[in-house]
């Protein structure tokens, strides 16, 4: 499957969402391209279709002090945090072309993260009954997607060097007492985002059998 790769750097959540919608409208197998977006977001709590603001544990003073936005969004799942130091990937993929259903797609996204973690000699695992990737008892990657006319949007977020304290202000993914982790915490050093981007692109290409368009 051929695809375009776009690195957006640091971009507001709302701006990335608008871009995704335009790409979804074009990605119908005839007029558009499958596209993989790489990016980071400024601090924001996003609440998915099955989520609730009850999973925000902090008060409005914390949100104002830390300049954290809150947004209700049309992806699956509950609440999560996005911020600098977290690598977000939004695949705009035509599932008809990939020949898979939504369940298989979610498992493939988990496989991307597990593949990448293996490069750092970290064992990533699935947890039965949940979507995402764990290392031991801690969650390192969250997944929440949207699908329109079998074209995907939203995607996955991988904690690289992100400030994990923000996750203590919510019940991540609606799970109370869940502990989040990051590559930095596991490896004891900062990991260049550019390095992780390169590895995650390779993982996507292996898992989804992708070929980048020149």
UniProtKB/TrEMBL annotation:
It catalyses: octanoyl-[ACP] + L-lysyl-[protein] = N(6)-octanoyl-L-lysyl-[protein] + holo-[ACP] + H(+). The active site is at residue 173. Pathway: Protein modification; protein lipoylation via endogenous pathway; protein N(6)-(lipoyl)lysine from octanoyl-[acyl-carrier-protein]: step 1/2. GO terms for molecular function: lipoyl(octanoyl) transferase activity. One of its GO terms (biological process) is protein lipoylation. Catalyzes the transfer of endogenously produced octanoic acid from octanoyl-acyl-carrier-protein onto the lipoyl domains of lipoate-dependent enzymes. Lipoyl-ACP can also act as a substrate although octanoyl-ACP is likely to be the physiological substrate. This is Octanoyltransferase.
């Amino acid at each position: 499957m051929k695809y375009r790769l776009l690195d957006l750097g640091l971009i507001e959540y709302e701006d990335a969402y608008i871009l995704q919608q335009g790409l979804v409208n074009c990605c119908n197998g005839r007029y558009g391209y499958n596209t993989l977006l790489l990016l980071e977001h400024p601090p924001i709590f996003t609440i998915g279709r099955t989520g609730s603001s009850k999973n925000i544990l902090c008060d409005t003073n914390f949100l104002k002090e830390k300049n954290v936005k809150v947004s209700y969004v049309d992806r699956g799942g509950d609440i999560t945090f996005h911020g600098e130091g977290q690598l977000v990937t939004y695949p705009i993929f035509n599932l008809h072309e990939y020949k898979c259903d939504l369940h298989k797609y979610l498992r493939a996204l988990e496989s991307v993260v597990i593949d990448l973690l293996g490069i750092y000699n970290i064992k990533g695992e699935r947890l039965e009954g949940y979507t995402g990737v764990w290392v031991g008892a801690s969650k390192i990657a969250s997944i929440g997607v949207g699908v329109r006319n079998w074209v995907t949007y939203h995607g996955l977020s991988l904690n690289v060097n992100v400030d994990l304290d923000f996750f203590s202000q919510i019940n991540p993914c609606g799970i109370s007492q869940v502990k989040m982790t990051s590559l930095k915490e596991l490896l004891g050093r900062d990991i260049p985002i550019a390095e992780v981007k390169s590895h995650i692109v390779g993982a996507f290409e292996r898992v989804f059998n992708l070929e980048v368009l020149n």
